[in-house]
Amino acid sequence: MGKELTHNLHIHLETRRRLRYKTTPEERVLWKLLKSKQLNDTHWYRQFSVGCYILDFYCPSAKLCIELDGIQHSSEEAMKYDTKRTAYLAQQGIEVLRVPNELIWSQRSVVIDAIVAELEQRLKI
């Protein structure tokens, strides 16, 4: 029996497209740094789906997800959802790195250093 495919399912295609079209300023800034293999020569996707969840940014070789969190993630309901989502992704072997939006503006180098460190650990560079 083959492995069940759960990534980038067609049923999520329109949602992924809409999210890419309605990118936040923070996502645009981070995407400029991730695209074109600029960090440790790794390939990234934006708005990549795994199961029923759509990840902001995903590096398949490192099984690393980066989630930019705006103010909407601070509610109790959102935190419960994020916890459930992170647990599901962990079952898939995917590590989630959560980055508050404001860090993209105030401490971008710290964010990049954290991403590079996680890539190095996961890829054993």
Summary, kept brief:
The chain is an alpha+beta fold and 125 residues long.
List the helices and strands and how they pair.
Layout (H helix, E strand, L loop, with lengths): L12 H9 L3 H10 L10 E6 L2 E7 L4 E6 L6 H16 L3 E6 H6 L1 H16 L2
Explain this structure to me?
- With 125 residues, the protein is of the alpha+beta class.
- It has a single domain, classed as VSR Endonuclease (Endonuclease, Chain A, 3-Layer(aba) Sandwich), CATH 3.40.960.
- Helices cover 46% and strands 20% of the residues.
- It is built from five helices and four strands; from the N terminus they run H-H-E-E-E-H-E-H-H.
- It has helices spanning 13-21, 25-34, 76-91, 101-106, 108-123, and strands at 45-50, 53-59, 64-69, 95-100.
- A four-stranded mixed sheet has the order 1-2-3-4, with helices on both faces.
- The termini are far apart.
Features:
125 residues, alpha+beta, Endonuclease, Chain A, four-stranded mixed beta sheet
- Give the N-to-C terminal Cα separation: 34 Å
Number of strands: 4
Number of helices: 5
Low-pLDDT windows of residues: none
Provide the spatial order of strands within the biggest beta sheet: 1-2-3-4
Mean pLDDT: 85
CATH architecture label name:
3-Layer(aba) Sandwich
How many distinct domains? 1
